[in-house]
């Protein structure tokens, strides 16, 4: 006899739980989402959810299955004409948010980071290790410059996708690029000496 709450196809059930968790975390943040609510959305009982993940914190970590591998994204931003690097960076960032399924993990992280120190720490570590350090090293700029770009873009995402500030919600991709790309371009190129470029 099957265990109570367990349905055939554990792989499928696990994925359904993760999908329900992503939706709940994106809509309600880490603190607002409950194990019971996620289990109900997935059509299972809370005991099965605990069986798969143990705690809500572990479920959150598992549900943050980001839509891109930063290790693949960073080289694509850095490669190409130097005078277009700011635009490539901003367009890549916007691309992560265009599709609903790609947006949900990032919304969950932003909302949860404002209310939960553990999530904020996870987000800081992700930005530091996967993005800031790699871009700063590749461009030969201080990490504070890349952090400044991240602050601008995360702030934009917060105002557009979480708070829903009307002018930003209505702005087209090209309008957003026109606003953000020049700043990113400045931080990544102004006064930077490339190792393969002779000094004047």
Automatic annotation (TrEMBL):
Segments crossing the lipid bilayer: none
Keyword Isomerase part of the UniProt annotation: no
UniProt-listed SUPFAM superfamilies: Homeodomain-like, Tetracyclin repressor-like, C-terminal domain
The keyword DNA-binding is annotated on this UniProt entry: yes
DNA-binding region in chain numbering: 34-53
Gene Ontology MF annotations: DNA-binding transcription factor activity; transcription cis-regulatory region binding
Domain HTH tetR-type stretches: 11-71
Keywords: DNA-binding
Superkingdom classification of source: Bacteria
Gene3D superfamilies in the record: Homeodomain-like, Tetracycline Repressor, domain 2
Protein name stated in the entry: TetR family transcriptional regulator
Organism of provenance: Amycolatopsis azurea DSM 43854
